[in-house]
Design goal:
The structure is a single chain. By secondary structure, this protein is of the alpha+beta class. It folds into 2 domains: 179 residues, Ribosomal Protein S5, domain 2; 141 residues, GHMP kinase, C-terminal domain (Alpha-Beta Plaits), CATH 3.30.70. The strands form 2 sheets. Strands 1, 2, 3, 4, 5, 6, 7 and 12 form an 8-stranded mixed β-sheet that branches. The chain has a 4-stranded antiparallel β-sheet with strand order 9-10-8-11. The chain contains 11 helices and 12 strands. Helix 4 packs antiparallel against helix 5 and helix 8 packs antiparallel against helix 9. The longest helix is centred in the last third of the chain and has 20 residues.
C-alpha cells in the first residue's frame, strides 16, 4: 500500500494576485505556509483478476471497470492523463473538511500526482510537481483557480512566492527558531460552519480583475508580501514583530473584502470582529471567501477565550510545517 500525505496551507498575504488573469499583466506574490493538517490518499494496486478494476472511496464509493466511468474528476483525469492501466483501490481522507479555504482541492491534486509517479518509481522535483498540478487543474479540469495552493502543497514551508508571466520564484523566509515558535503558538482557526467551491466565489472577482477594477487593491496586496516578509525576518522582539505582522493581516483582509461582493458576509464579519475585540493581533478569512476558516494570530493566553466564545468544536490550533507532499510508505 502506498500513502501520500499532503499538507493544507494558510495564506497570510497576497491572495488574489496568484490568478493568471492578474500576474500575466502585473507581478503577483503570496506569503504563506503549509500547516499540520493533511490530505491523505491511500492506493493499493490490485491483481488483474479483481472483480472491479477501479475502486474509489471518498464521500461515496465507486466500483467501475474503466477510467472513463469514474465520477471523481481529479482521480478520473489523473489516471487518464498519466495513462494508468493497472487495477487500483484508492481511498482518501482529510484532517479538516474540504472547501474551507485551506487549499484542500489542490493538496489532493498534488498528492495524487505525487503518488502516481512514486508508484511508478518516478521522483518528480518539487517544481515539476507544482507545475503538473497547476496544469491538471487549469488546463485539464478547467478550474478557475490560482496557483498558490499547488505550490504551497508541493514545496511546503513558510515562503514568499512571486509570479510574473510564466515564471515562478520561491523565497523561503529566513526566520529564527524563536520567532517561528512564537508564531506557531499564536495561530488558530475558527470555523464559520460552511463549505464552498472556490470557483463559485471567485467568478465575480475574476471579472472585476480582468476589467481592471481590482488593480489598485491587488497592487497594494502584492507590495504587502514584501513588507510582511521583512517584518518576519527582522531582528528584534518576537511578539512586537508578530503584532506588526498581525496589523498587515488586518489591512490585507480589508483590501481583500473590496475584490468582490461574495468574499465576506455578516457571519464572517461577526467572527472576525469578535476575535479582534478579544485581543487578536490580526486575522483574516482564509481562501477565496464566502465561508470556511477565519485565521487569527493571538497571544496563547487568549486561546481559551476563543474556545469559550466560539466552542471547542469550531476552534482549531495549527502550526506551520516545513515540508510539502510526501509519499510515506510502501508496505
Amino acid at each position: 500500500m502506498w500513502i501520500s500525505k499532503t499538507p493544507l496551507r494558510a495564506s497570510f498575504l497576497g491572495g488574489g494576485t496568484d490568478y493568471p488573469s492578474y500576474f500575466h499583466k502585473q507581478p503577483g506574490a503570496v506569503l504563506g505556509g503549509t500547516i499540520d493538517k493533511f490530505v491523505y490518499i491511500q492506493a493499493l494496486p490490485l491483481a488483474h483478476i479483481a472483480e472491479q478494476k477501479y475502486r474509489i472511496t471518498y464521500r461515496t464509493t465507486e466500483s467501475v471497470d474503466n477510467i472513463d466511468a469514474i465520477q471523481h474528476p481529479v482521480i478520473r483525469e489523473g489516471l487518464r492523463h498519466y495513462k494508468w492501466e493497472q487495477p487500483l483501490n484508492i481511498a482518501t481522507m482529510s484532517d479538516l473538511p474540504g472547501g474551507t479555504g485551506l487549499g484542500s482541492s489542490s493538496a489532493f491534486t498534488v498528492g495524487l500526482i505525487n503518488l502516481l509517479h512514486k508508484m511508478r518509481g518516478i521522483e518528480l522535483t518539487r517544481y515539476e510537481l507544482a507545475r503538473q498540478s497547476i496544469f491538471m487543474e487549469q488546463e485539464i479540469l478547467h478550474e478557475k483557480v490560482g496557483v498558490q495552493d499547488q505550490i504551497h502543497a508541493a514545496f511546503g514551508g513558510l515562503s514568499r512566492y512571486e509570479f510574473v508571466g510564466d515564471t515562478i520564484s520561491i523565497e523561503p523566509l529566513r526566520v529564527t527558531t524563536s520567532r517561528l515558535t512564537t508564531l506557531n503558538r499564536s495561530l488558530l482557526l475558527v470555523y464559520t460552519g460552511g463549505e464552498r467551491r472556490a470557483t463559485e466565489v471567485t467568478e465575480e472577482q475574476e471579472k472585476r480583475t480582468r476589467a481592471g477594477d481590482n488593480e489598485a487593491y491587488l497592487r497594494e496586496m502584492y507590495e504587502m508580501t514584501r513588507i510582511g516578509a521583512g517584518v518576519l525576518e527582522a531582528t528584534g522582539d518576537d511578539v512586537k514583530a508578530l503584532q506588526r505582522f498581525g496589523d498587515l493581516l488586518n489591512h490585507g483582509w480589508e483590501l481583500k473584502r473590496n475584490l468582490g461582493n461574495t468574499i465576506s458576509n455578516a457571519q464572517i464579519d461577526e467572527i472576525y470582529l469578535a476575535g479582534r475585540e478579544m485581543g487578536a493581533w490580526g486575522g483574516k478569512l482564509l481562501g477565496a471567501g464566502g465561508s470556511g476558516f477565519v485565521l487569527f494570530m493571538a497571544d496563547p493566553e487568549l486561546h481559551p477565550a476563543f474556545v469559550e466564545r466560539f466552542g471547542k468544536d469550531r476552534v482549531v490550533p495549527i502550526e506551520l510545517v516545513s515540508y510539502g507532499s510526501q509519499v510515506l510508505q510502501q508496505i
